[in-house]
Predict the 3D structure of the following.
Amino acid sequence: MVDHDVSPAALGPAPWGSRLLGSADETSGVRRLRVQALLTIPLLVANLIGIAVVIALVGFVLPGPSMFSRRLILQNVIATPLYTALAVVVGTVWGTVWGVRTLRWAIDPDRVPTPAEQAAAVRVPRRLVMQQAVLWLGGAAVLAPLYGLVDIAYAPKVLLGMGFTVVVVCANSYLIAEFALRPVTARVLEAAPARRLRGFGVFGRSVLVWTLATGVPVTLAMVLAVLSLCGMDFSEARLAICVLSLGGATLVFGLLLMTQTFAATVAPVRTVRRALRRVENGELDVHVTVFDGTELGELQSGFNRMVDGLRERERIRDLFGRHVGDDVADAALARNPELGGEEVEAAALFIDIIGSTTMAATRPADEIVAMLNDFFGIVVDEVERCGGLINKFEGDAALAIFGAPAPLTDFAGSALAAARAIRRRLSESAREFDAAIGVSSGRVVAGNVGARRRYEFTVIGDAVNEAARLCELAKQDPGRVLAAAVTVEAAVETEQHRWHTGESVVLRGRVQPTRLARPRD
């Protein structure tokens, strides 16, 4: 009946399965009036239709003495209309006052109902049906003896007519109350997600509707047949009228009750189906409002738990990818990761800020962090644009791999292109820091290194060591970018033309000389 927290998926045209119940963003006052109108008006109409059905059955359909004789003036003119009007007024006031008192907590949109209020709200549909049954059975208890005082044959006629009508009216009232109180049921289930409502399940609803819509009329027809066989004087015309009337009632009321039952069953399924379509389209910010207390409500709750799990999995996957790289994350999720690695052809790019030790000693920590974030933002953008993977950050340095774990056709050319792009962006704006870059390629071992309970993806090999030494040497080189000539030779021709080779040097810690290459621009 009131506003409560709903996710964007619930802010659709029918968060409670029907547009008649309004939208989730309307005010609590409007919703209270809406629910009260949906509860009062249909119940009143159902009872008025029931009164008309009783009049038709008792007055025109069921066999027996005529109900329009002069002997029944007192009953027909005074007693019956008086009780009918009194029952309608009492039922309306009784149900409205009791319902408002029971659901007073729902007027406050921020109020969480207590367990006692939850239990009372759950009992509202059954209590309303019991009120209807008391008034109808009270009418049968009063009117049947009153008519029987004139002629005992009137009593069973009145009892049969009112007995048939009361079960149909009560069943219809229960379905109406369940429908109108869906927003209240949703709040109860939201306050106590593990609560199971004491209502009819899907199977129970179906059996109940079949019993009331088909079983009761057929039973009444069978009773008339038994009475006829027992010697009660029925004319053929009267018997035909009874059969046609009961058959028509079975068709009409059966269709009405089955429509209500199927609508109550399909509504939760439709909300889940709409939400599933959004999930299929990649939207995980989806939440279904749980408004059904049967197995279908458990289906809605199960969907919400599933989407919560998907959101958590996606969050972990995103966080995992940010730490180790999307390619490594995808590879780990696609197969069971194990310790060890495999030999692959790859290129390594090592980049390090020049003079970072002095800056760290002379500047505040927040400035250093902001500078590193700016620096690594450029590095990550260009490495990923060229198809590489940032394998690790090492303080003010970073190691990027091209060709592992995802294979790359031109891993050497991609690493060289990334080095040029990073250098160009660092040179285009006046930054307070500079960085050196080294690029090498060759056969490396890529895989998981560490212990069984804690390991990380890394790349080990001579190419990685050579890239680090080239980066160290590039700090004294005017262009700040050095690559191994064999890496340039392994790149595609268009990338080769952007580099020129130079002298050979023996890098620190190595035996064989490395021929250097520098970008032309």
Remarks:
- Residues 1-11 have pLDDT under 50 and may be disordered.
- The radius of gyration is 40 Å.
